[in-house]
Amino acid sequence: MFHPKKASSMNSPMCDSGLVLTTDPKPRLRWTVELHERFVDAVTQLGGPDKATPKTIMRVMGVKGLTLYHLKSHLQKFRLGKQPHKDFNDHSIKDASSLELQRNNASSSGMMGRSMNEMQMEVNRRLHEQLEVQRHLQLRIEAHGKYMQTILEKACQTVLAGDNKSAAGPTLNFPTLQDLNMYGSSDHLHHQSMEMESFIDKKRSTPYTGKSPLVWADDLRLQELGTASCLDDQIGPLSVDRGSDIDSVSDIYETKPMLSGGHDHKKYDVKMDRPSPTPPRTVAISAGGMRSSPFG
Amino acid sequence: MAMVMDLCFPSFESFDYTTTTTTSSTDEGCNWSDWSPVVDWNEISDDQEDFQDLIDSMIDENVVFHQSIRTINDDDQVNEEEYNNSSPEYNMAMHDEAGSAEDSKGLRLIHLLMAAAEAMAGRDECRGLARVILVRLKELVSPTDGTNMERLATYFGDALQASLDAGAKGRPAPGAAEHQRADVLAAFQLLQDMSPYVKFGHFTANQAILEAVANDRRVHIVDYDIMEGIQWASLMQALVSRKDGPPAPHLRITAISRSGTGRRSFGTVQETGRRLTAFAASIGQPFSFHQCRLDADETFRPASLKLVRGEALVFNCMLHLPHFSHRAPDSITSFLSGAGTLNPRLITLVEEEMAPPSEGGFVGRFMDLLHHFSTVYDSLEVGFPMQSRARALVERVFLGPRIMESVARIYRGREAEEGCSWGKWLGAVGFRPVSISFANHCQAKLLLGLYNDGYGVEELTTNKLVLGWKSRRLLSASIWTSQDCDL
Fold first, then answer.
1. Is A266 exposed, middle or buried (0-12, 13-18, 19+ CB in 10 A)?
2. What is the pLDDT of residues A63-87, one digit of tens each?
3. Does B184 sit within 8 Å of A184, measured CB to CB?
4. ipTM, 2 decimals?
5. pLDDT tens digits for B93-117?
6. How would you classify the pairing of strands B250-257 and B287-293?
7. Closest CA relative to residue B437, chosen from A43, A81, A136, A36
8. Residue A265 CB neighbour total at 10 angstroms
9. Chain A partners of B206 at a C-beta cutoff of 8 Å?
10. Which residues of A touch B271 (CB under 8 A)?
């Protein structure tokens, strides 16, 4: 099925299984276009070069005579993206012409030869592109994450800087709030709440019961998220009770808090260093996993 | 499910049996999406008392389920004394079938929502009925607890309520107030972690932009709703590391801002600009940032844009989550048609993909919305199975207001805007589609692979990639160019 059943060309006698083995001193499997295409199909079916294993590929391809060894090395090369390119270039002309000779029946054998060549180029190109895309995606996601960090850090810093910024906030007395606008600061809230508890002795059903942020995070099992502390701390209280949250928070805003500065800042720095969140796969990416994973 | 319901009624003497059976008979083997109206409300007399009983009967079943399933009954609003005389054998039956009872409750909620929608779509006399239904619905659900369906039902119930209050013609009541600023940021981070919605739109648009400006020295992007500017971080990174074409092209971004305060105000946008400038500097990307103000009525005037000769002009229009889709579709229209007059190199559009409007009128569209958001909830749940509070935050900050807006929009029922997605509109007014490249499609697939197998991407038309969850399409990214422009 990989090659016409006709007899051979120069140096590639065929086996019964249809695989082409060279007559070099070391008999090696020649990855022809069709075989390679089948390989690529199998790999894609299995979810990409990283998910596919030689064993599964072998199963999916269902080609007799193909061993794990063949597949292991080919997969490695495929992942690296260089060797296949070279192989194609080396053998493409030969293959094309040998196939051309073999297809005596095809009336448009000339055209077949040309289109085979084109197909090889196409496959080659696609492979390359795919790898490029993968690399670029990795970088873009990182840039995305880096930028997100700057937003979060800015939000934290602005809080800790306290009342240095001027603002045109009409309703809020606390200057930094208006400046932050939509980012506001979760830390800010947390901070304020902690301070308020000690300074203001009001009885209200506020969710800020003076628990430490770590406890909140645990409660929510958001440790797994590994997001910046800002988020851990404030998700708990704010989502519990909508109505009272807003009341208590705005009450807090009306008086200037006294932030303890240094100590808390450190706390946030520590938390910021945690690796970015999420399901295992993305953790790998954000920790640079994709790059350092065994591509070869 | 239905069988269990039939058992218990003898213990509740105040109910009208006939109507109850009507209800339960419709439940049998009912797939919620095929649900058809139980009762023709218009046929029944206008006497509210009868409806009250009917509703009570529907609801009581729910409440009993509710009580027996929940070990901790957080729902203080339920009128307990009315219902705690449930018979023991009934409760036992409930416990046995807790799982299906939950489904059944979900189904009940859908019935209620649909009934309310029906009532609202009907003659005015039914408004009162709708209100009653919604009040009862509210007693059963909570925005932070319970199943997806329960939380969803809260928002949809609220949305219907708001639409009722606003009336058929006027602008919707100022329901969704601006959220706590801090919440928005937290929810945004969470949304990105839980799902590919944000990145899909951004990355697809960016890839198309990169390809379109491959040989340009100057690029100018006009962004309709820049928010924090996160989309541009990855674009800048890509520009900085591009191998072919002129190195280090200059990037100029003009962000659209609106008068007044709030998330899209001049000040907020300026803050974003500062941040982007700093980021660009940190990676060595030549960059400048501008703002362009909309008129008071939020119309975009192309003349107010500053253009530079020889720059590649791109219009970027992100309408999906978490971008708060604008109240005035006229504003979007003015933006896109204004874009047309300037012959941009590219227009990138990301919007929610809704099914074409069904013939069911308001109710049909309402159910479609319900289905759409239910799918979103499901996808988030799978992405973040344990973090129900985190999800509740995202729902509160982004999805809830979205639901509110969407329901209000279909209730106002303007056919013209209903029929058509913005993509279709662009096609209709003469913009040319631009094919999605192999690399772009590939990137989308890879991106989704990082999240969950339930997500899929399809190339619906040559210029449109659609992100879907399971079999439901959710989000589409499409690329267009002006007719006179040769890419």
1. exposed
2. 888 888 888 888 888 887 644 444 4
3. yes
4. 0.74
5. 444 455 677 778 888 888 888 888 8
6. parallel
7. A136
8. 16
9. 140
10. 179, 181
